[in-house]
Amino acid sequence: MKQKILNQTGILLITSVLISFLVVSLFMYDKFSGYMEESVREEAQYVGMAMEDSEGEYLEHVEGNAALTSRVTLIDVDGAVLFDSMEDIGGMENHNDRPEIVEAREKGSGEMLRYSDTLDKQTYYYALALNDGKVIRIARTTDSVLTSLQSSITLMGLLVIGIIIVAFFVVQHQTKKLIDPINELDLEHPLRHVEYEELRPLLLRVHEQNKQIVSQVQELKERHEEYLAITENMKDGLVIVSQSEVLSINKAAQALFQVRASDCIRKPISRVSRNQELRSALDQALAGEHNETVLNQRGRTYQLLANPVKVSGKPYGAVILIWDITEKKAAEQMRREFSANVSHELKTPLMSISGYAELIENGMVQPQDVPEFAGRIHQEANRLTALVQDIIQLSKLEEGGPDMPKEEVDLYELTQDIVGNLEHAADKKDVSVSVEGESVTIQGVRQILYEMLFNLMDNGIKYNVDHGWLKVRMWTTYDNIFWQVEDSGIGIETEEQERVYERFYRVDKSHSRQTGGTGLGLSIVKHGALMHQAMIHTESKPGEGTKITLEFPMEEAM
């Protein structure tokens, strides 16, 4: 802007000065030309009078006079040149056809501004008729005018150059003075200290625009913060990409691919992962197609969903959503296994009952054997009932419904009740049972706690050796409450110690069939422990017995 003002003002100033100089020069030239013509006319009058008074002798004084700047010519009546102060008359033409001579003979005087072939210059001629019929002519070239003007024009030229130089600095100073307040405007507060009222309408618009921009920036900031709050706290991975680079990646995706946002943002997707499934899904999404696939990463399974983002109907980028389905897949697998195991476990006693009943119905059993077969049917029916009850109990634990209210439960008292209920089973195998510790009360579901402790102690008797022992201990620390059962039984292999808590998993399947186990007891213990925020610790060696400890947090204590 400053340069533009300087240029335009400078051009206008220089043009104005040059035009003024030209006009003045032309005016002066015209004025000096008038003075020169008037001088020539007066000189002609003077020379004419002098010649008549001196009867022609005056011309002798004119010839050879270097001080004269005018050319004096005398033309005879017949047009012959009788005298010329600057040229040899011998080779001069007849002058009766010269316009100024013709006019002088007709009117007494004549003048003409024309090019002189003799002098090779633009010349002003003035002719005056004498009384004897001759014509005296005075001529002076326009160079004399320019010579007179030369000093004035030089002075004026120097003056013009000086004016232009001074004007340049003045214009530059004034332009700077004009522009500085504009350059120093506080655009955040444009209405403070308005230097030029002409700028107020513009500054008002800037002020309104500032308010709109601040409002829009604040809205964008709030939306960005909302977006970050949502995406950064998502447990699922989210990656947003354009056709060529990553635009956003949340914390979950960074943790999944073990990258940092600063290493990925505005970088190619290959900086996030070179996984082929991810690359293929992204390519399809960028081509405008929805895509779903399964991604395996570091031993876990993820569901990957890639959707295209279109602008004006054309794919602009893609949104990739990744969530962990490892537990879901495992749960589905467990559900399938559970269904298969339930079918198998229910089918076995039912087939036994059906087979024994069919034998009795068809009379294929001796009368003395009927009580034995009926006992077997009763045994399988009890086993089926226990299995159904355990399945129902396990389902309740998984649902954790409101029909399971918590109450104060004394673990020591509950353990003594279980010991009484298992007394017959312990006597049958000659297993001694002892309880050590003190009364400890926790907040829990009595029925579930009973099932948990009962199953652990029942397993300790069932899988014990004859004449063995079973010890139950209880104690507390500053942070936790411990309940522990230890037996002298058959023990569990190290690789199977975690699997025994799976549904229908048995260490010794043949022994489990004999003892009537359903394979769900320890699963109930596991789910019951989860309900009460308890941890299970298993220690066992084959042939040396098993020790299982329940660790309840002190928050559950009363």
CATH topology label of the largest domain: Heat Shock Protein 90
CATH architecture of the largest domain: 2-Layer Sandwich
User: How does the helix and strand content classify structurally?
Assistant: alpha+beta
Oligomer state equals single chain
CATH class call of the largest domain = Alpha Beta
Relevant CATH superfamily of the largest domain? Histidine kinase-like ATPase, C-terminal domain
Quantity of strands, as a count: 17
Number of domains: 5
The order of strands across the largest sheet is 2-1-5-4-3
Kindly provide the radius of gyration, computed on alpha-carbon positions and rounded to a whole number of angstroms: 63 Å
Head-to-tail CA distance between termini: 83 Å
Task: Flag low-confidence runs.
Answer: 509-515
Please indicate the percent range of residues in DSSP E strands (runs of 2 or more). Answer: 15-25%
Q: What's the rounded overall pLDDT mean?
A: 77
Helix count?
A: 15
- General shape: rod-shaped
What share of residues is helical?
40-55%
Largest sheet geometry: 5 strands, antiparallel
Summarize the structure.
By secondary structure, this protein is α+β, with helices and mostly antiparallel strands.
Report on the architecture of this protein.
- With 558 residues, this protein is an alpha+beta fold.
- It is 50% helix and 21% strand.
- The strands form four sheets. The protein has a five-stranded antiparallel beta sheet. Strands 7-6-10-9-8 form a five-stranded antiparallel beta sheet. The protein has a five-stranded mixed beta sheet with strand order 12-14-15-17-16.
- A hairpin with a 3-residue loop joins strand 16 (535-541) and strand 17.
- Helix 13 (446-462) packs antiparallel against helix 15.
- The chain is rod-shaped, with a radius of gyration of 63 Å.
- 22% of the residues are buried.
- Residues 509-515 have low confidence and may be disordered.
